[in-house]
Every structure is written in structure tokens, then in C-alpha cells.
Amino acid sequence: MSNTPFWRRYARFIGPDPAADVKDELGFHLDAKTDDLIRQGWQPEAARKEAEQQFGDLRAVERMGQRIGQRTERRRRLSDYANDLLHDARYTLRTLGRDPGFAAVSLLILTLAIGANVAVFSVVNTILLRPLPFPRANELVWIAPPPSECGWSCATYSADAYEEFRAASRAYQDVTGYEAFTTPENFRLTGLGEPVPATGIEVIGNFFQVLGVQPAMGRLFTAEEARGPVIPNSTGTPVALLANAYWKRQFHSDRAVVGKAIELNGAPVTVVGVLPESFDYGAVFAPGARADLFVPLSLDTERMWGNIVTLIGRLKPGVSVAQALDDANRVTPDMYFNLKYPQSKGRYKGDLVPVPLKDYVTGKLRRSLIALWLAVGTILLIAGVNLSNLLLARSAARAKEFATRGALGASRGRIIRQLLMESLLLSGAGAVLGLGLAFAVIRWLAHQGSLALPLLNSLRIDSQAVGWTVLVALLTAMIFGLLPGLRMASGNLQELLKDSGAGAGLGRKHERIRAALVISEIALACVLLVSAGLLLRSFAKVLEVDLGFEPDHASSMNVEYDESAPTDEARLLKRTAIFQEVLARVSAIPGVQAAGISDYLPLGPNRSWDTPVPKGKVFVPGELAEPLVYVVTPGFIRAMGIGLQGRDFTWADGPKSERVIIINASMARRFWPGEDPVGKILMRGDEQDRVVGVVDDVHEESLESSLGAQVYYPCTQQGPSRAQLVVRSSLPPSVLAPTLLRALRELNPNQSASEFRPVQTIVDRAVSPRRFFMLLVAAFAGLGLLLATLGIYGVISYSVTRQRPEIGVRMALGATAGRVQRQVLGNTLRLALAGIVIGTLIAFIVARAIASLLFATSPWDFPSYLGMALALLVVAVVSGYVPARRASSINPMEALRNN
Amino acid sequence: MDTAKPEFLRGTLDVLILKSLVWGPLHGYAVTNFIRQQSDDAFLVEEGTLYPALWRLESKGLLSSEWGLSENNRKAKFYSLTSEGRRRLRQEIKTWQAYAAAVAKVLAATQLPEPEEA
């Protein structure tokens, strides 16, 4: 600033005017020249003319001068401003450096608050705001019936239905789908040493074309290949597409694999292409699961299998979802479940409801995510209030400094700018650190494959997140910088200068503002704590839910077997023999208490067959739901730890003996209300199944949904679609796994090294989204509590410092240390109580708003509120105790002398 | 007016202006007078060249200006060297002297030099 020439300082008075400057300057030149000429003997008028003529084109020079002048002026103004900013920044850094404790605490608060905000924003942006990672993703719809109790079988369609719908619909560019009953590790990659399990999804041939996914290498399926069949191959070579991650992991990113044959289940399959990294099947269609490769689904071989495919459509441009629904309702009455059965016409009436694919993928999470966003916003607010408080305390201590600056001519705006610079610098640094924190959190989250949240793979800090960071940082700086700035700058200079610091009017006013700030901080923390408490209680309730089975000590593994035989009956006998042998060997392993096989496990994929009816009873069609179906071996029910009344299946329940089933309690209640179902007959068409046992309800879809009907069939009488071995043992799975695999390999050398995983992991995956949200909200509540603690401590500690002389006088007059302590603590508790009361009122409103996120917990859940109040009171006492101790140890003489 | 050496003048005008301000602030008219007198009327600086040059130097931060009163009590804009300008002048003078010495040496040559050894 010392470089600024003098004239500019007074030119500022009326504002700079480069044009006038140039005119004046050149005018002076002409005058001086004329004078000289007159002195040389020229006539005044002639002299003037001569001077002007000598000058040449005055106008042109003037114009040039104005241009240069304006440019200089602009640059000067900018550099002055930059100078001031730089000056402010340097000054701020100096003052912050003098108070490293304050700087460190505020930076920590800002880093946590901004980091949490950016991380949550990234999650919300990825899952809720951004379109799905497909071209023109808004055209994509998921077509499914309204929710029902019979699981996936009622959310899928038959091959005939798919083809009819595709042909008859006018709303779609194209319709596709995938086989919904794929279970993990349904393939075996062979021919490369030990067989390795792989998860392959059967997709309708045009799947990737409809989604708009282009292969990273090679090509997609051709129309010819799209007809299948896949394995074993009869017409041409079967083909597969590899998922990018699988290609990297299993084939070490070998480009040469495209076009080559690999061996799946012992048969050669040609890899026609590798999918791009951006396409993650699991992230969109099966959160928490992964898909390694894709094979074309043969509609012809699947035609006899009932409902097997999900439907995904790409709407024609300009067609709305409502129009598509109208179109579907026009088509469905003429659709057959199976063209061979004329009576199956119209079965899908009203059952094809398109919803935007995005809603299907993320709709259930919307409320949770918005709640999370609000929670993290509250954290930002608390952090802002807290910093505002800290800054107020600081600015109170610096009141004289500002008064002096004001007296020396600093304008109010200049002082506010200085204070804002302080908050901007702090929040800027906090934003940088927070971004780093968010980056770490997001990286960690993106690799949580077992977290059943969709689209996590595309989670990253992108330019939008950075933009959000800047916005949040500026907002924070405004929140916490402006209030102290305005307070400071509005102070009466004289009063401030006279003010001896302690006990003066401004100090008291400050304290009131700070108390209000602390109260609002506590109230906000209160809301967070109650929300976290309610979610925590809900989560505990979910964990308490009676699963219907005992996941502890049970582990499962996919068992491969070869049941190929000429007839159905021969297959059944062969399979039964294999299962019996497997179970005999596994049971013989020391430490194994029970073992059994089922084709489906709880909390995973599921299916149903048809709607059986109790013999001799009449029900209105549609009154009885389709039960979910499990084909199990004897011993499975015990191995899973499912409670059983009646008897389990035995190996003696053969194909020739009476057909037997076990049903669950819900089904028993619904089919034979008030009766003992054991011994009753269930009719499936002409087939009669005798109920021999009733088992506890097993949670199927999720822990939080209600229970439907479930039927267990013996594998000795019905065909399972695969074999999930469940072993109950007190040995840890990792110890048991090698022995188990060896035993299975003795029977079937092709058995791949499938994962032997605790059944608990299935449960964990099912509760992972709730756990995720609960943990985050709890973490935010903890952070809020910590910030509130800091706030309380700050304000009490400051008021003790300010009242030192007063306390000194009182102690000199005989007040005991205990009395002083009690009074300080009393002040603290008053603040806390005020905050708690206000916070509880707000929490009531918030709790009602998040009621739909709760499970078996009332929004007025008393323990949550009580816990919150206790936590805040304890925190208040703790944070008030330190200053109270300090107050009571004041030496009266010293305190009075210092004043 | 001497229009014989405009090329020469344009290249050197900046340094001449800087030099003219060594003893203290001057207004534009005084600068022309200084250059004219000092060069024994060899350089007549055109106003159309001088003022733009002054403004350019000012905007580059080599000169600063301020309004003041001239000898005959008229309002005039006085230019003075900034420390940056002073530094530039020293450097330019050195360059010029080296240049002039080199030219003089070449012109003073009396015979072809011995061929340099490779």
C-alpha cells in the first residue's frame, strides 16, 4: 500500500477519472509550450496554433491515454484489493499462529464437519441424484408386479410371457431381462488347474444392447448366440461375456482371452468380449453380490420353467411411465403364462407395472439417505455455531484491538472483511482437510463389497463433490464468521476503548449471545442423539428378530454334483445317493454336529412353484399365497437350527412311498386355522402331499418384512435346483473348510473351491444397509455431542475467566470453594437443560418425520429420549466441572490485585 | 523537427525518459525539454510518442505520477522513478554502454584481425 501515490489517495475522494487526467495533462503541455513560444516572441494566438500544430493529432493521443489509463486503473484496483486480501491473510495467519490451540480445535471441527458432509453428499449424489450409469438412463424401466409374499417367483415372468409382451407392447424400443434365480457360484471355471467357482448370470440376448452397454473389448452377443443354449452345446459354440473385474482378477487383464475358449463346467465356452469397467451388474441389480460372467439365456430351454426372467424395458423417446402402464394393461389380458396351457391366458393381468429403473434400484433408500443428509447438515450447523462461539470468545478478547483499528480509520466493512478472512481461511483449510477425509472415507466405502447398497462401485469424489465442498466451506464461513464480525464492528468505539475488559457491558452482552449459541448447539445435538437413539433401538430390534434359524455355528458351501441320467427317476435316485453319501462323509468329520442340504438358503434368492390348497377345504382364488419352496435333505432343518414339530424327512421317504412335506407355522395357521396340520393333506393339482412336520417361520426376504407361507419338500421326492450344504459345528469355518473340501473332492474331483462361509454373513448382509445408516447417524450424533461439549466448556470457561474478580470478592467475603463450584455447575446445567427442552421439542417433530425408517420402535420411544437427556447432562457436568474447579481455586487476593 | 532518426529514437526513448527523472519529478513538457537540451537538439521528442511512452512506463510500474504545481503555478502531472524504474535505468545504461562500446570498437578498427585458431 505504501506504493500508492499520493494523488490517488485524494483522487479516490471523487473517484478516479483517467479521461480527465489525460486532458489536463495534455492541456498543461500545450499551455507550457505556448508560453515558451510567446517568450520567444510569438503572438499569443499564433503561439497557441503553433503549439497545437507541433503536437500533431491531439485526439489520437488522448484516446490512447484514456485506454492506457483505464487499464492501469483497473489493474491498480485489483492489485489494491489483492494487496488488502494478502495483508488480511498474512495478518490472520499471524494471529492464528499466536493462538495455536484455537486454530487446531477449529480446524479439527471443520475437517470433521466438512469431511462428513462431502462424504455423505457423494453417497447421496451417487445413489439418489445422479442418473444410473447407462446412456439415456431415464428411458429404462423395471417391469414387475405389485409387491407380494411369494418372493422372486411372483416378480418374474415366463419365457412365453416375455416374448408376447415384447411383441405386443408399443411403448418400448426393446424389452430385455435376466434370469432371476441365479445363485452365487453357479459356474465352475475349469481347465486352469483347480476348479474355481464363478457366478454367471444368464441374460436375454439383447440385455446389453437395451441397457446401452458397449463392450470394452470384443463384442456383445449376436442374435444367433442370443438364442442359446449355453451349456452343453449342441448347435455351435456357446459364448460368454466377462465382467471387467472378473477379467482383471481371474485373467490378469489378458487381452488375448477375447475370442479364445475357456472351460466352464468342463465344457469350452468362447469369450466373445469383456464388459466395460463402468458396468457393474451387482451394483445395479443385486447390491452386495457380484457377477463374473454373462451367458445368453435360452428362452426355448427355459420355456417349461414357469416364471424365470425379470423384465427391463427401454421406453421409446417421449413415452411416459404412465403411458407405458396403460400400454401394459392393454397387452396383459391376452398374455399366456404358457402357450401350451390355454387356461393360463390372462394370468398376468395387472401384473406388469413399469417403474423407472432408478426408482427400483434406489427408491427404498431415498428416505434413509435424505435423513442422513439432514443429519450431516445438522452437524455442519452445530460446527458453525460452535466456531461462531469460539470466534466470539476470541473477538471479545480482541475487542480492544478492533476498537483501536476502528479509531485509526479502519471502516466497519474493513473489520468485517478481516474477520471474514479469518473464517474463510479456517474453513478453506478445513475444506481441504475435509476433502481429504471424505476421499479416504469414500475410497473405503467403495470397496465395501459386502455392503448391500446399490451403485457403491461408482462412488467417488468428483467435480460435483468438490463443488459441494466449496459451497459448504463458504456457507460455514458465513455462518461462523459473520455473526462475530457484525457484533464486533457494531461496538461503540469509545466504550470499547475505555472498557477494561472484564465485567464491562459488552462482555455481558457477548455472554448472552454465546449462551444462546450454546443452547441452540445443545438442542441440535439433542435432535441428532434422539434420531441416533431411535435408529439404534430399531437396529437392536432387528437383530433381536427371531430369524427362525440359528446362524451361529452354521456355515454353508455350494456342493457340485453330476446327476446326469436318462430318466427323471434315474436322476432322482442318483442324486439321492450322492446327497446321502456327501452327508454321511461330512457328518463323519470330527466336530460336525449336523449337516444337511437345501437348494435355497434364507435371505437370498428364493422361488415358489404354485398355489397348493388343503384337501377338503375351499378357498377363494387368490386368498392363499404361493408358498416359497425349499427342496431339502433329511437333517437340513436340524443343521439350520430351525425349530420343528412333527418329524423331519428321512431317507426312507423315497419316490415310491407317500409324498411328504413340512410347512411353516404361518402357512399352518393360514391353511388349517385352529387345527393341528400334522397328518393333513395338501393338494397340488392331482398330487397329494402329507404334512409330516411344522417348522418355525424363517425370515426370507429380509428381517423386517412380514412372513409368508413356506413349504419344504424332500429331495428324495422332488428335484432341487442345486445343493447348498449347511454344516453345524463348533469348529470355526476356516478350520473345517479344508477337511470338508477334501471330503467333497473325494466324491467329486470337480468340486470347485467354493467359499465355506458362516450363515451369519448372510444375516449380516441382509442388515448391512440398516447397520450402515445407523452407524453413520450414531457417528454424527457422537460428533454433535462432542461439539456440544466443546461449546459448553468454552462458554462456561470464558464466563469464569470474566468473573474472576467477582468470584475473588465473593471468596474474600467468605464464600466457600464448594459454593463457587456449585454455582458454576448450576450455570452449566441451566444451559444444558434449556438446550435439552428445546431440543426435545424439535426431536418430537423429527422423530415423527423419520418414523418410517424405524423398526418396531415408536418415535416416542422413552429410552431414546432418556438416553439423550442423560448423555447431554453428563457431558454438561463434565464440561462444566473443569471451569468450576478453576473458579473455586481462584486466590481472592490475586484476583483482586490483577483487576 | 528532426525526423531523420525515428527508429533510433523509438528504441531509446524509454531509457531517455527514465534518465530525465533521475534528479526528481518532472512533468511531460520538462521531459521533452530535458531530452532536447541534453542532446543538443539532436533528439526532438514528438508529443504523440512521448506521452504514450510515459503512460506505458507508468502502467508497467517503472514510473509513478502525482499532480502538482508547475513553475508558473499551473496544475501539472509530475512523473518520478519508482525503485523498479531506477533498477531498470541502471540496467539499461549498462546495456547501452556495452552496446556503444562494442559499436565504437568495431568502427575504430584499422585492419582485419588475425584469423582465429580453431
What helical percentage do the residues of chain A reach? 40-55%
Characterize the overall form of chain B: elongated
Uncertain runs of chain A are 230-235, 500-504
CATH architecture assignment name of chain B: Orthogonal Bundle
Query: What distance separates the N and C termini of chain B?
Result: 51 Å
Number of strands of chain B: 3
Binned, the helix content of chain B reads 40-55%
Q: In the residues of chain A, how many domains can be counted?
A: 4
Total strands of chain A: the figure is 23
**Number of discrete domains of chain B:** 1
Summarize, please.
Chain A is 54% helix and 12% strand.
Descriptive notes:
The complex is a heterodimer of chains A (899) and B (118). By secondary structure, chain A is α+β, with helices and mostly antiparallel strands. Chain A is built from 28 helices and 23 strands. Chain A folds into four domains: 6-98, no CATH class; 137-364, no CATH class; 367-544 and 765-898, no CATH class; 561-751, no CATH class. In chain A, strands 3, 4, 5, 6, 7, 8, 9 and 10 form an eight-stranded mixed β-sheet that branches. In chain A, strands 15, 16, 17, 18, 19, 20 and 21 form a seven-stranded mixed β-sheet that branches. A four-stranded antiparallel β-sheet of chain A has the order 2-11-1-12. In chain A, helix 14 packs parallel to helix 24 (759-802). Chain A is globular. With 118 residues, chain B is an alpha+beta fold. Chain B has a single domain, classed as Arc Repressor Mutant, subunit A (Orthogonal Bundle), CATH 1.10.10.10. Chain B contains four helices and three strands; from the N terminus they run αβααββα. In chain B, strand 2 (63-69) and strand 3 form a beta hairpin. In chain B, helix 1 crosses helix 3. The model of chain B is unreliable at 1-7 (pLDDT under 50). Classes of the chains: A alpha+beta (899), B alpha+beta (118).
SSE topology:
The complex is a heterodimer of chains A (899) and B (118).
Chain A: H1 6-14, H2 18-39, H3 44-55, H4 58-98, H5 100-129, E1 140-144, H6 159-168, E2 172-176, E3 187-190, E4 196-198, E5 200-203, H7 207-211, E6 217-218, H8 223-226, E7 239-242, H9 244-251, E8 261-264, E9 267-274, H10 281-285, E10 293-296, H11 299-302, E11 311-315, H12 321-331, E12 353-356, H13 357-362, H14 366-397, H15 399-407, H16 412-446, H17 463-489, H18 493-498, H19 505-544, E13 554-559, H20 568-588, E14 592-598, E15 613-614, E16 628-632, H21 636-639, E17 644-646, E18 660-664, H22 665-671, E19 681-684, E20 687-695, E21 710-714, E22 723-729, H23 733-747, E23 757-758, H24 759-802, H25 804-812, H26 817-849, H27 862-888, H28 892-898
Parallel strand pairs in A: 5-10, 7-9, 16-21, 18-20
Antiparallel strand pairs in A: 1-11, 1-12, 2-11, 3-4, 3-8, 6-9, 7-10, 8-9, 13-22, 13-23, 14-22, 15-19, 17-20, 18-21, 19-20
Helix pairs in contact in A: 2-3, 2-4, 4-16, 5-14, 5-16, 5-17, 14-17, 14-19, 14-24, 16-17, 19-24, 19-26, 19-27, 20-23, 24-27, 25-28, 26-27
Chain B: H1 6-20, E1 26-27, H2 28-38, H3 47-59, E2 63-69, E3 75-81, H4 83-107
Antiparallel strand pairs in B: 1-3, 2-3
Helix pairs in contact in B: 1-3
